[in-house]
């Protein structure tokens, strides 16, 4: 698969197809589909660069981004051909750091407060696929889901932004157990651990996602942005800092709604 460099603006359909992706923007909802079902939606470096390009260029009125997978699996993780012949990774330490940072940009934009990101996960979500789901704000999973952090079994660490959300969701000890056994987590356990906010029968995943999206869009758009920003700050703040953040965000809302502070 090619590795197009992206100019400003959304990648076109051909560039997206090269990267194994499809993008549908319908008003306030953008749907990104991992679209290499014959490879179980294995992802290449090009996939992550294209995801970053999508994140940089979505229209300003997009409020919800749904990530889903075509075919039997959400994603089998990194395309293992990326490792063939040594992977062609840069040799210099700084270059390698910049190389991985570039790939991580395919994931970090999912945390931006301008939109809520929803992973619709069915079948296998392995390695980078699991991390992509972890990068989203809300995971809706089908009852056939199989999460697996396989990197340590392959001699690697999870480095595509997944370790922070994993630890925040399940705690350090459970995260250790999941990563260092590289075992599979099914739907029932995923829900119990907080890795899935919503579960649905396999045939009803799309409907569960559509219902969630409708509910998300029913909430005031400005309040949604401010609230996501506020909630994402909370784990890094002590109580006083978070109270201050609440006041700051609320002042912004009151100004927006009433054109000034009441009282
Ligand atoms: N990279 C490249 N090709 C892949 C990958 C992958 N990660 N996963 C599946 N494929 C290919 C298979 O080689 C196969 O190709 P073929 O039809 O030419 O033989 C095709 O996709 C279908 O795969 P199957 O194994 O036949 O599908 P099945 O549904 O039985 O199993 C599963 C799916 C469990 C995902 C299995 O393919 C698998 O274990 N894949 C490898 C997962 C992996 O180790 N990923 C890397 C994790 S680490 C990281 O992401 C950083």
Automatic annotation (TrEMBL):
Q: In its UniProt entry, what is this protein called?
A: Hydroxycinnamoyl-CoA hydratase-lyase
> Which pathway does this polypeptide act in?
Lipid metabolism; fatty acid beta-oxidation
Q: Which CDD domains match?
A: crotonase-like
UniProt keyword annotations, A-Z: Fatty acid metabolism, Isomerase, Lipid metabolism, Lyase
Q: What class of enzyme is it?
A: lyase
Work out whether the entry's keyword set contains Magnesium. Answer: no
- Domain of life of the organism in this record? Bacteria
Return the EC number.
4.1.2.41
Name the PROSITE patterns on file.
ENOYL_COA_HYDRATASE
Q: Which InterPro entries match?
A: ClpP/crotonase-like_dom_sf, Ech1-like, Enoyl-CoA_hyd/isom_CS, Enoyl-CoA_hydra/iso, Enoyl-CoA_hydra_C
- A single Pfam family it belongs to is ECH_1
| Molecular function per GO | isomerase activity; lyase activity
- Could you confirm whether the keyword DNA-binding appears in this record? no
For the biological process aspect of GO, one term held by this record is:
fatty acid metabolic process
Lineage of origin: Bacteria, Bacillati, Actinomycetota, Actinomycetes, Streptosporangiales
Similarity annotation: Belongs to the enoyl-CoA hydratase/isomerase family.
């Amino acid at each position: 698969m090619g590795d197009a460099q992206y100019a400003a603006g959304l990648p076109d359909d051909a560039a997206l197809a090269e990267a194994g992706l499809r993008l549908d923007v319908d008003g306030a909802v953008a749907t990104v589909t991992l679209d290499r079902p014959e490879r179980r939606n294995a992802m290449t470096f090009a996939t992550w660069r294209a995801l970053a390009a999508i994140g940089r260029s979505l229209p300003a009125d997009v409020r919800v981004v749904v990530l889903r997978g075509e075919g039997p699996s959400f994603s089998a993780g990194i395309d293992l051909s990326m490792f063939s012949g040594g992977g062609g990774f840069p040799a210099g330490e700084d270059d390698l750091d910049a190389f991985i940072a570039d790939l991580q940009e395919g994931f970090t934009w999912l945390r931006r407060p301008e939109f809520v990101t929803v992973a619709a996960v069915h079948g296998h979500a392995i390695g980078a696929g699991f991390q992509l789901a972890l990068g989203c704000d809300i995971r809706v999973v089908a009852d056939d889901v199989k999460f697996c952090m396989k990197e340590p079994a392959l001699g690697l660490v999870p480095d595509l932004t997944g370790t922070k959300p994993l630890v925040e969701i399940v705690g350090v000890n459970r995260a250790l157990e999941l990563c260092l056994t590289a075992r599979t987590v099914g739907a029932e356990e995923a829900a119990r651990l907080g890795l899935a906010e919503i579960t649905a029968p396999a045939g009803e995943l799309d409907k569960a996602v559509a219902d969630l999206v409708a509910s998300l869009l029913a909430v005031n758009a400005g309040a949604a942005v401010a609230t996501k920003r506020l909630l994402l700050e909370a784990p890094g703040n002590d109580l006083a800092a978070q109270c201050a953040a609440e006041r700051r965000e609320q002042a912004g809302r009151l100004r927006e709604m009433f054109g000034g502070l009441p009282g």
